[in-house]
């Protein structure tokens, strides 16, 4: 049922390992899209797997060995959602734990499951939650919570950090990772150099699209380290992420992001920076001028992707005029800091409304004859506002799964769910990595 595709192809990046035996495992959520029975899931968890090795830049600092410090890759499995690598986060200590306990708490596990269901529902590429399991332990971080594990599915867990580790070991390792990744992405080329170029283009393209979609939703990932930057362009690791309520380009939610490196508006530049780190791994395989030329294309790729996803959110087709209109929108958003979702969704709900500061912009927008139906399809009615995510987590911690399921139903159908109101208490929202 599970094939060790990754570990068989790249044994140098995989240490055989197993999910630890938990005192009292209890499946709290099982994702209906994957049609896994309880028994099958528990059986899978008992199978031998691997902890993956990878490196990464964390907040700009290179760490030569990170790896799965609290996760085990069980293998790849055919699911109704396609071939997925099954990964268990909160699987217990591994050879890569670096002094950490290898555990996860229920709160952060629920957050990842809940938000990633929403991301999937609105067409943002993401890893998926297959199941949330409590382990029967108590885990202390900022507070004591039930121990939990997230069973996660992804097209692949290859990340920029995988290539960075390969590069520290030498050219043959980079080529091995490249050949394996090319298989995952369905790329083919006559020479290794051409394959590497194609690969870089593909990753840049998928990252540009991914970050553009995050920006449209006001999503702040919070920890865009290279070890969390996926080769397949999936949103990977939902630790300290949050959504904008009031618009602010400088919004930072993570308690550890003191410099605001991963603030909302920096995300495209951070993705570009990560792409340079990826390209660096190919020095000696691809000519340096070619690599430089490639990574310099990222801002334009991002810009195009951003206009493509933003234009329909305001009911328009991408064009140079719409691009200017979108830039103007960003400017007034930054100046007046309104509730971001309220404003974008409000355009559809009440296109003829008037507002002093919005009026000149609204006039230009209406003159372009926006398509309200297009807006309905491209910007959801409901989204998991930070206070809703917190309520869901609190409900889970209080064992009130009825509320969790009700909110999950909205997350899975956000275009038809009732509108999510802004928070009553506008206190600053702070998130924690959950480690
Ligand atoms: P993250 O920020 O969650 O992507 O984690 C960064 C690195 O820290 C990865 O190598 C994780 O495996 C590791 N890590 C995070 N939390 C823990 C933990 N509780 N125990 C051991 N390793 C951890
Ligand atoms: Mg990570």
UniProtKB/TrEMBL annotation:
ATP binds at residues 67, 69-70, 89, 101-102, 152, 159, 237. This is Protein nucleotidyltransferase YdiU. The keyword Chloroplast does not apply. Its EC number is 2.7.7.-, 2.7.7.108. The active site is at 227 (proton acceptor). Its cofactor is Mg(2+); Mn(2+). Belongs to the SELO family. The keyword Metal-binding applies. It is an enzyme of class 2 (transferase). It catalyses: L-threonyl-[protein] + ATP = 3-O-(5'-adenylyl)-L-threonyl-[protein] + diphosphate; L-histidyl-[protein] + UTP = N(tele)-(5'-uridylyl)-L-histidyl-[protein] + diphosphate; L-tyrosyl-[protein] + ATP = O-(5'-adenylyl)-L-tyrosyl-[protein] + diphosphate; L-tyrosyl-[protein] + UTP = O-(5'-uridylyl)-L-tyrosyl-[protein] + diphosphate. HAMAP family: SelO. One of its GO terms (molecular function) is ATP binding. Mg(2+) binds at residues 228, 237. Pfam families: SelO. Transmembrane segments: none annotated. Keywords: ATP-binding, Magnesium, Manganese, Metal-binding, Nucleotide-binding, Nucleotidyltransferase, Transferase. Nucleotidyltransferase involved in the post-translational modification of proteins. It can catalyze the addition of adenosine monophosphate (AMP) or uridine monophosphate (UMP) to a protein, resulting in modifications known as AMPylation and UMPylation.
């Amino acid at each position: 049922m599970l094939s060790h595709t990754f570990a068989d192809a790249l044994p140098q990046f995989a240490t055989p390992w197993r999910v630890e035996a938990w005192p009292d495992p209890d499946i709290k959520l099982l994702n209906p899209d994957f049609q896994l029975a309880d028994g099958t899931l528990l059986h899978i968890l008992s199978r031998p797997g691997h902890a993956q090795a990878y490196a990464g830049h964390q907040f700009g600092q290179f760490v030569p060995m990170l790896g799965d410090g609290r996760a085990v890759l069980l293998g790849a499995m055919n699911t109704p959602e396609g071939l997925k690598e099954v990964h268990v986060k909160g699987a217990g200590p591994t050879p890569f734990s670096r002094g950490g306990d290898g555990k996860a708490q229920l709160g952060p596990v629920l957050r990842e499951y809940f938000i990633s269901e929403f991301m999937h529902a609105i067409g943002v590429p993401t890893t998926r939650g297959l199941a949330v399991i409590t382990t029967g332990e108590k885990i202390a971080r900022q507070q004591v919570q039930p121990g939990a594990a997230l069973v996660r599915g992804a097209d692949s867990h290859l990340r920029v950090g995988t290539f960075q580790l390969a590069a520290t070991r030498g050219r043959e390792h980079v080529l091995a990772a490249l050949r394996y990744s090319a298989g995952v992405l369905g790329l083919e080329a006559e020479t290794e150099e051409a394959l590497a170029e194609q690969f870089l283009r593909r990753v840049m393209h998928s990252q540009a699209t991914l970050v553009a979609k995050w920006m449209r939703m006001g999503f702040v990932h919070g920890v865009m380290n290279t070890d969390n930057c996926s080769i397949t362009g999936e949103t990977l690791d939902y630790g300290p992420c949050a959504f904008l309520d009031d618009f602010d380009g400088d919004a930072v939610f993570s308690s550890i992001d003191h410099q605001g490196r991963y603030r909302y508006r920096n995300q495209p530049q951070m993705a570009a920076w990560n792409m340079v780190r990826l390209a660096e791994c190919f020095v000696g395989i691809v000519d340096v001028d070619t690599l430089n030329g490639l990574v310099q294309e990222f801002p334009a790729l991002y810009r195009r992707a951003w206009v493509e996803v933003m234009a329909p959110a305001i009911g328009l087709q991408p064009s140079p005029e719409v691009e200017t209109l979108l830039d103007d929108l960003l400017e007034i958003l930054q100046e007046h800091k309104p509730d971001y979702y309220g404003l974008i969704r409000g355009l559809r709900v009440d296109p003829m409304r008037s507002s002093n500061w919005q009026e000149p912009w609204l006039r230009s927008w209406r003159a372009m004859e926006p398509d309200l139906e297009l807006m309905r399809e491209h910007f959801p009615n409901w989204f998991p506002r930070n206070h809703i995510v917190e309520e869901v987590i609190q409900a889970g911690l209080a064992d009130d799964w009825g509320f969790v399921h009700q909110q999950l139903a909205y997350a899975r159908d956000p275009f038809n769910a009732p509108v999510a109101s802004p928070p009553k208490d506008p206190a600053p929202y702070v998130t924690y990595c959950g480690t």
